[in-house]
Design goal:
130 residues, alpha+beta, globular, signal, Peptidase inhibitor family I36
């Protein structure tokens, strides 16, 4: 009986320690997320800059060009450029939906209700139907 109680307590302690360890992870930042190169806007498939990353250089985003998320829908972004970019959901049926705007030199670890909805980034002043 004492052995069973010890095992149960040891298991509970291991779960508690493991649970605390899994809560430690990347924190949202206002700028300088280390893995997004300067002059790029980077979209990540997962929250907090996890998962696959797609990089778009600011020079490629002029003249109403768009960056598509080919591998799925993004859940976090780091805009390491001097421009604001609109984030769009193209999977909202026939209607395009704005998920938000990525301000210059800002990082967003989550889009909240917009997680897994960002499929397109648009150049400043452009819309997907231009």
């Amino acid at each position: 009986m004492r052995t069973a109680v010890r095992r149960t307590l040891a298991t509970a302690a291991a779960v508690a320690l493991g649970g605390a360890a899994t809560m430690v992870g990347p924190q949202p930042a206002s700028a300088g997320t280390p893995d997004c190169p300067r002059y790029n806007i980077c979209l990540y498939l997962e929250r907090n800059y996890e998962g696959d990353r797609m990089d778009y250089h600011e020079s490629d985003m002029y003249e109403c060009l768009y960056g598509y998320v080919p591998q799925g829908l993004a859940s976090s972004v780091h805009n390491n450029t001097r421009f604001a970019f609109r984030l769009w959901d193209s999977n909202a049926g026939l209607n395009w939906a704005v998920v938000g705007t990525a301000a210059p030199y800002k990082a967003y670890g989550s889009f909240g209700a917009g997680d897994n909805r960002v499929s397109i980034i648009a150049s400043p002043g452009c819309t997907p139907f231009d």
